[in-house]
Amino acid sequence: MLRVRPVQISTILPIRYFNHAAGLVCAACVASLVAFGASAEENAAPVAKITLHYLTKDYDEPIPLSLVAKILTDNGLQGARLGVADNDKSGRFVNQEYTLVEHVLPADADVAAEAKTILADGPAAIIADLEAEDLLAVADLPEAKGAIVFNVRLSDDSLRAQQCRKNVFDVALSYAMCADALAQYLVWKKWPKWFLLAGTAPSDADYAAMVTRAAGRFGGKIVEERVYEFDAANPRTDSGHQQIQTQMPQVTQGASSHDVVWIVDTVERFGEYVPYRLAEPRPVVGTQGLSAVAWHRSYEQYAGTQMQNRFERFAKRTMTERNFSAWLSARSIGEAALRSSKTGIPDLRTYILSPAFTVAGFKGESLSFRQWDTQHRQADADHGSPLPRLYVAAGRLSAREESERHARLRHA
User: How is residue 398 annotated by DSSP?
Assistant: First the structure.
């Protein structure tokens, strides 16, 4: 039988010889690792640098009617910063490096001239937080023909139709998407009769037209339409609040029989003070009350809570709808570069418009762009007070809601 007897190293070699030998082995290992690292560094692929540009002007923004809402000076910009930071984290694993260049211009600056500077070296990815005239001025530049211009501010449906540009990718929800989403929910709830109360801003007229369109598409009926014309000068002052609040019963009195009041106040002049101040108790929907938005601070499904918390730690405030659109724009570039292994803007644009492209946006389903008008497909988050938990896709009920709806109809 073979017997194994443990042998101490010290019985073979004196300790001093063992320590010396161990030191030589360690030194050799360190030298090998250093040599391997230097060789790997020499053979590593070059880092691909991808630059995104955030282009905006110091516009005279509408002041939030509610004193609870803060007046923001970086609405949208913080979302782009976080999106680029997220891209950079994942890009490190594939030798991609992301940079955000911020172009914040005075209100009277020539935005087209700034865009020419951005595009001087070729097509670029531009997150455009611009009004319609400036957005089209940038998009119509010959230098911008091959660019990717993300619209994160405007909901005008004309930008998706008559004024549509092939290089403008609309990430912001359109008024038609918001109106369609709410209309389907109201018809499903058997609230088909709508009293429409709209403001006087041009954007109010655009949204109101889409409400009329949605009524025709989904079986709703606008029983009466009124325009709220009162201007409180500074509605955030105590007297401004009081004037608007006391007028709500008066302006809604005597309306035709209706199920809901649909508010169209895109610039926040009166809508916040319509709920609970009507002449007759009715649900309030539209731009205030139960609303269809791309993002809201109450959204928590599909890891939305984690996104809310990350943004609050990053920006020291809650995430707005425009912040989300800017973040999603930056992430679209990062996701396209990661999945396609391309970094050139023309290549990324081709991939983003291909059926292969999707990007995660905390909506429970993959998001993408329409090929025919480059509008971003995404779910809207309906919110109100109290907050419902219904999420509808742009222009149609989501698959989950459709299945639930059909199940209810079968058991009705």
Answer: -
pLDDT for the residue numbered 411: 40
Question: How many other CB atoms are there within 10 angstroms of residue 39's CB atom?
Answer: 10
Listed residue (390, 377, 402) closest to 174, CA to CA? 377
- Cα–Cα distance between 119 and 58 in angstroms, integer? 21
3 state DSSP class of 14: coil
Confidence tier at 246 by pLDDT (50, 70, 90): confident
> Which sequence spans correspond to the domains of the chain?
48-173+296-377, 176-292+397-411
Global confidence as pTM = 0.81
Matching residue, tokens 């929907």: 285
* d(C-alpha 58, C-alpha 358), whole Å: 33
pLDDT of residue 232: 62
Q: CATH assignment of 176-292+397-411? A: 3.40.50.2300
Quote the CA–CA distance of 403 and 390 in Å, as a whole number.
13
Please give the single-letter amino acid code of residue 142.
P
CB 211, CB 178: distance < 8 Å: no
Closest by CA position to 87, among listed 77, 79, 96: 96
DSSP collapsed to 3 states, 228-251 = CCCCCCCCCCHHHHHHHHHHHHHH
**Which class is domain 48-173+296-377?**
alpha beta
Cα–Cα distance, 282 to 317 (Å, whole number): 33
Q: For residue range 304-325, what is the model confidence (pLDDT) as tens digits?
A: 999 999 999 999 999 999 999 9
- In contact, 57 and 132? CB cutoff 8 Å: no
User: For residues 23 and 205, what is the distance between their CA atoms, to the nearest angstrom?
Assistant: 82
Q: Say if residues 80 and 52 touch (Cβ distance below 8 Å).
A: yes
Mean pLDDT in residue range 382-398: 39
Contact (Cβ atoms closer than 8 angstroms) between residue 51 and residue 101: yes
The two domains 48-173+296-377 and 176-292+397-411 share their CATH topology (first three levels equal): yes
pLDDT digits (tens, 9 = 90+) for 196-206: 999 999 999 99
Query: Helix crossing, 321-340 with 304-315: angle to 10°?
Result: 110
Residue 301 pLDDT > 90: no
